[in-house]
Structures are given as structure tokens and as C-alpha cells.
Amino acid sequence: MQTIPLGVTGRTTSRLGFGCSTLMGSLGRRGSLAVLEAAYNAGIRHFDVAPMYGYGEAEGCLGEFLARHRSDVTVTTKYGIAPPKGRSFFRVARSIAGPIIRQFPAAKKHLASAAKVAVQASAQPSERKSFTADKARTSLESSLSALKTDHIDIWLLHEATAEDLTDDSLLRFLEDSVAQGKIGSFGVGSDHLQIDDLFARRPEYCAVLQYEWSIFDPVVTIASPFRIHHRALSARLQTLHEALVAEPERLRSWSRETNSDLSNIAVLSRLMLKAALLMNPESVILFSSKQAGRIQANAAVSDDSTLDQPAKRLYELYPR
Fold first, then answer.
1. Which end of the chain lies in a sparser environment, N or C, as judged by fewer CB atoms within 10 Å?
2. Its pTM surpasses 0.85
3. What's the 3-state SS for the chain?
4. pLDDT tens digits, residue range 96-142?
């Protein structure tokens, strides 16, 4: 697995990182830990989590994993969006839903949709984003405890906008936390549409920027902050695959140009992930999966140089 310096933290980590947003859902704790171990065994050394992930339980699950691997992995977690209320309710609901899904797999999609609605309803708008020094202090201590660690490598302000970052005491708290060794570096994880405004108006918060990037997007021109990207695949993979299948002539042309069978979604997935790595050579690229085989396949993309030219050509072909 290729490695990269993790910004100004002084640590080195893997080019590919594992997103933990799917932990503690339908997999449960045992399945979630197995997925984390699969990522680790595939060479992945960076893990991205947030207090709200996994109905508020993903940090604790990752903390159990870190107890075995903390010295050689790096971690990002976040502050600003509180975990959902009623976590005990979700534990009970998951214990009930598990046997139902095993007996009736077709029910999984409907149960997942219902759970998503319930999670969104459980977080009041006023609790979703709050960026003050006092709340940051409480959130940091909670994350350190859940993750069973004395430091967090990167701490991001979750879905912050420039308008949110008006509390000067918050910046002082972040800088003090770095000086105390509680966090290695801090930054903002937000929608890509907010990034230019954040960097222009609040550069002091932007030592790290995390936002989505896929082959649909132009090459990034911001040079100085350390960047982490996500959603190189996800729905974008399905969108592009469906578009190509719907246009047979373009599918044949692009497949010929890339010397790849782009009708095969697994092939397209590898090229899209490789393009994200190549077009962002100094960034960590996140992905997420519940399947050990897919995790292994994605990890193999990092070192597969035979994918370089096809991936670059695919990026060139996509109209922006």
C-alpha cells in the first residue's frame, strides 16, 4: 500500500483510508470489527469516523479496534454534528432487525430507510451544527474516551461553513489542543461547494480540508492545505455505469480508449478509484465497504500501476 505524510501531524499513513460511516448498522459490532480488521489486513492505515456515525456508536467500535492497532494507524474524527438521541432505542431496534434481515433479506432496504429517517428525526436542527469552544472541548473529550486513545491525528469541524466559524475562542482551543498533543492537526470537513469560501475567509481553520472528489470533478488547484477526499465511488459509480450502459456507442468508444471493459462495473470502479489517487497525489482517498472482498480489491488498486494509463484516460474522457 502506498503511503503519504499525514499533513503536519508528523505521521505517515496509507494513501487509501477507510470511512467508518457504515459501522454499527446492519453489521452489528462483531461484523463491524471484522470489516475494520479486513481493512487493516489489506494495508489500510487511516480510519475516518465521526460521533454521529453508526447511530452514535461507530467511535466506540473503532476504539475497540484501536486498542489492538493504535500505534500504526491514524484516525480522523469530527466535531459539530452531535450523535443522535435515543441511542438505546437504536440498539434495541438493531437487535430486533438483525434476525428479520437474516430470515427475510429483501426487508433490509426498507428497514435501512426507516432507520435513516429515524436518525434524522432524532437530531434537532439546533444540535446538528454548533461550533463553540465549550462544546468543542466536551466533544473532544468524548471522542478521546470513545476511541480509547490520548490523541486524535486529525480533528475536523463537521460540515462547517465560513459563517459558522465566528468564535475566536474556538480557534484558540484548537491551537491549544494541538500544543497539548491531544490532536495532531485540525481542519474542516464540508461539502465541496463550501471549500473555496472557507479557504478564502477562514484560512486559519483550514490546515486540513476534507471533501468529496470523483472523476466528475476538476483537478484541485488549492495547493497548501492537506486534503482528504471521499465519495470517489459511492453513487457516482452507479451513475456513470448506468449512463455508459444507456449509450452503447460511448461505452464502446470509452472502453476502446481505456482498453478496459467499462460495461463491467468492477472494472469501472477500479479505474475511478485509481483516477482519484492519480489526480490527487498528495491526498488520502477514503472509501467504505461492508464486504471484505471489496475492501481487498480496492486496496489492491493503490499499487496496481497497470491501471495508471486507463484511469488517466477515463478522467480525460469525462466531460466537465
1. C
2. yes
3. CCEEECCCCCCEEECEEEECCCCCCCCHHHHHHHHHHHHHHCCCCEEECCCCHHHHCHHHHHHHHHHHHHHHCEEEEEECCCCCCCHHHHHHHHHHHHHHHHHCHHHHHHHHHHHHHHHHHHCCHHHHCCCCHHHHHHHHHHHHHHHCCCCEEEEEEECCCHHHCCCHHHHHHHHHHHHCCCEEEEEEECCHHHHHHHHHHCHHHCCEEEEECCCCCCCCCCCCCEEEEECCCHHHHHHHHHHHHHCHHHHHHHHHHHCCCCCCHHHHHHHHHHHHHHHCCCCEEEECCCCHHHHHHHHHHCCCHHHHHHHHHHHHHCCC
4. 545 555 555 665 565 556 555 554 444 444 455 779 999 999 999 99
